[in-house]
């Protein structure tokens, strides 16, 4: 098959930009600055883990935790400074090849966590197995749903529970690829993601938003009237109206200053969004056309690709959105990555902000008092 001159041109631009980032560095084409942000995340306290990737956090109905899902397919529970992290649950009994640093599909990959307060059950999305749950005593998790409208759930990501309606909402980031292909899903330009509503009473799963380009974080409003889904490459937060006069319709809730991971609601009804990275010149150019993204995936190692998307400067950003208007009301950063980087989730709890990371063996806590 003959490759067009246009495709070769874009591929050449991408290759040149990769070289520039590596050799010229973040001084020229590093992460874009955000007006009004506060560089305060450097003061956060670090809680190390014995395994990588505490991507999401949650607390049980008794307030114990946090619980985190990690790279080797387990759920760990924080028992305080004296006891540290202990095993609470795991996704599969087949754990012979599970690694603390590398995701193995057979071991599963727990992502978004949500406790159901009335039962004490922990529900979570697994990037290979679908939506799962485990009882209050932990142990081996069981499958809740891995199919919707006759199609397999490939990449369950984040979820939230409407306990009044006994409904789970979750994102399937791609109906074709799973967690192991996360960067391809991001760069390929294919709009194969969807948001799903699962009725726990009838066991019926229904797609409520589709043709999304890598939907990642998901959260329900405080009154349950709408569901938010973060579409990573476009930096858009989409809103699906679940109740009221607009029920069944969608609109755009917010535009973010970077690439989102998880989103979490606060006790007052606002939302915190963790940004995996801010926009960079390299990220903008790489997503001009799907051919560029696919070319980069084929020619660059994953570690280099992550480095380039971070503008050569891994960092951390948390964005707070008004729960009524979607307006950005606060932005916190560790712009140099001195303490925090590669953040995947922000949770506000008892005048503290808790942060997880999809890559690093760390949870961070920022005192807001």
SSE layout and pairing:
Blueprint: H1 5-24, H2 26-29, E1 45-48, E2 57-58, E3 67-69, E4 74-78, E5 85-90, E6 110-115, E7 122-126, E8 130-134, E9 139-140, E10 142-145, E11 147-148, E12 151-152, E13 156-162, E14 167-172, H3 182-187, E15 193-199, E16 204-212, E17 215-220, E18 226-231, E19 236-241, E20 250-255, E21 258-265, E22 271-278, H4 281-286, H5 290-299, H6 302-309, E23 316-321, E24 328-334, E25 343-349, E26 352-357, E27 362-367
Parallel strand pairs: 5-9
Antiparallel strand pairs: 1-27, 2-3, 3-4, 4-5, 6-7, 7-8, 8-10, 11-12, 13-14, 14-15, 15-16, 17-18, 18-19, 19-20, 21-22, 22-23, 23-24, 25-26, 26-27
Helix pairs in contact: 1-5
Short description:
This protein has 369 residues and is mainly beta. It is 15% helix and 40% strand.
Helix content: 10-25%
Structural class: mainly beta
User: Number of domains in the coordinates?
Assistant: 1
Individual helix count: 6
Overall CATH architecture: 6 Propeller
CATH hierarchy, class: Mainly Beta
The low-pLDDT segments are none
> Which strand-content bin applies to the residues?
35-45%
**What general outline do the C-alpha atoms trace?**
globular
Major sheet size, sense and barrel closure: 5 strands, mixed
What is the arithmetic mean of pLDDT?
A: 92
In the CATH scheme, what's the topology name? Neuraminidase
What is the CA-CA span between the terminal residues? Answer: 62 Å
Quantity of strands, as a count = 27
C-alpha Rg (nearest Å): 20 Å
Q: Strand order of the main beta sheet, please?
A: 2-3-4-5-9
């Amino acid at each position: 098959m003959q490759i067009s001159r246009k495709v070769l041109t874009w591929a050449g631009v991408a290759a040149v930009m990769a070289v520039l980032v590596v050799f010229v560095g973040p001084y020229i084409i590093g992460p874009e600055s955000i007006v009004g942000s506060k560089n305060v995340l450097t003061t956060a306290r670090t809680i190390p883990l014995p395994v990588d990737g505490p991507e999401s956090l949650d607390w049980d109905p008794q307030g114990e935790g946090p619980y985190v899902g990690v790279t080797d397919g387990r759920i760990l529970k924080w028992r305080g400074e004296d006891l540290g992290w202990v095993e609470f649950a795991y996704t599969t009994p087949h754990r012979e090849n599970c690694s603390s640093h590398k995701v193995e599909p057979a071991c599963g990959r727990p992502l978004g966590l949500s406790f159901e307060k009335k039962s004490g059950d922990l529900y979570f999305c697994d990037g290979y197995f679908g939506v799962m749950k485990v009882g209050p005593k932990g142990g081996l998790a069981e499958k809740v749903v891995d199919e919707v409208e006759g199609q397999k759930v490939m990449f369950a990501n984040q979820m939230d529970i409407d306990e009044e309606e006994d409904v789970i909402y979750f994102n399937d980031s791609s109906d074709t690829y799973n967690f192991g292909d996360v960067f391809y899903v991001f760069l390929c330009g294919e709009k194969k993601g969807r948001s799903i509503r699962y009725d726990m009473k009838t066991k019926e799963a229904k797609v409520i938003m589709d043709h999304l380009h890598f939907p990642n974080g998901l959260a329900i409003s405080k009154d349950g009237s709408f569901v938010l889904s973060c579409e990573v490459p476009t930096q858009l937060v989409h809103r699906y109206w679940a109740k009221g006069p607009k029920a069944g319709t969608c609109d755009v809730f917010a535009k973010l200053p970077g690439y989102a991971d998880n989103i979490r609601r606060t006790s007052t009804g606002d939302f915190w969004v963790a940004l995996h990275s801010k926009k960079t010149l390299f990220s903008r150019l790489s997503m001009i056309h799907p051919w560029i993204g696919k070319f980069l995936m084929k020619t660059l190692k994953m570690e280099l690709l992550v480095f380039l998307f971070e503008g050569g400067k891994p960092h951390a950003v948390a964005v707070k959105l008004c729960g009524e208007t979607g307006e950005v009301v606060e932005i916190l950063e560790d712009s140099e990555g001195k303490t925090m980087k590669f953040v995947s989730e922000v949770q506000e709890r008892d005048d503290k902000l808790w942060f997880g990371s999809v890559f690093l063996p760390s949870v961070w806590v920022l005192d807001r008092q």
